[in-house]
Amino acid sequence: MQKVVVVTDFDGTLMEQDVGDLIMDTLGVTEEPEVVEASRLFSEKKVGSSAWIKAAYPMLAGQKQQVDTILEGVHLRDGAREFIDFCKQKEVPITVLSDGMVYYIEQILSHQEVTVANIIGNPITYLANGDYQFGIQNSNEACSWCGCCKASVVKKLKEEGHLVIYIGDGSSDYYGSSFADWIFARSSLAAYLTKEGTAFHSFRTFHDILQVLLPAWDSYVEGTADRRLQGRFPALCKFST
């Protein structure tokens, strides 16, 4: 029998806040001319998140203390802890999949005493010796659109024979959810999916997700649950063509 796994976005999904945006806004990074230009090109879909990350994230070098202070004020989305407990009870591994900075994901989850099976994001962090490490997760030479290639991660899980429940809220999740079996969406991801006519479950909190999963869990395990995707191919995603 195929094993159910959960893939969830971090910023604005598992977290109430978009932590990356909060850091950039608070520290004034979004006001820097090169970041303003990268944001314009991104909003016009002329570049992907990879270009924006390369413009913005190097500016966090030497600002560990300021970043850590910002992280003290963020919190999990309502119901997230209960959802994580449910997955543990059902032995369903959770992968946190983010186009953000691995450093703040690890710091927040550690502070919240939350453990998940995998954390996949851009390898941007503050090292033990104080140095700043910058990098992107995406190593696909055919497509450098996203910093973290969420589609490749979900595609690999499917190739390994898993049933994938995807939870997200943003543009990178549009690509990441393309190979999933079921999607729980909010914000811009829900708008994208509605526009293209893709089936999904909307949510505001993780309590909403549990209300869908709990009474129908056996059908998810069996692969027969309502709104399972069939052949979705998002524009611009090289893995979907």
Report on this structure.
The protein has 241 residues and is α/β, with parallel strands linked by helices. Helix content is 43%, strand content 14%. It has helices at residues 10-14, 19-26, 33-43, 49-56, 64-71, 80-89, 102-111, 150-159, 171-176, 187-196, 206-222, and strands spanning 4-8, 94-101, 118-122, 125-126, 132-133, 163-168, 182-185, 201-202. Helix 9 (171-176) links the parallel strand 6 and strand 7. Helix 3 (33-43) packs antiparallel against helix 4 and helix 6 packs parallel to helix 11 (206-222).
Question: What is the gist of this entry?
Answer:
By secondary structure, this protein is an alpha/beta fold.
Helices and strands in order:
Elements: E1 4-8, H1 10-14, H2 19-26, H3 33-43, H4 49-56, H5 64-71, H6 80-89, E2 94-101, H7 102-111, E3 118-122, E4 125-126, E5 132-133, H8 150-159, E6 163-168, H9 171-176, E7 182-185, H10 187-196, E8 201-202, H11 206-222
Task: Tell me the β content.
Answer: 5-15%
Question: How would a crystallographer describe the biggest sheet?
Answer: 6 strands, parallel
Give average pLDDT, whole number: 94
Assign the structural class, choosing from mainly alpha, mainly beta, alpha/beta, alpha+beta, or little secondary structure.
Answer: alpha/beta
What's the Cα radius of gyration? Answer: 17 Å
What string, H for helix and E for strand, traces the elements in order? Answer: EHHHHHHEHEEEHEHEHEH
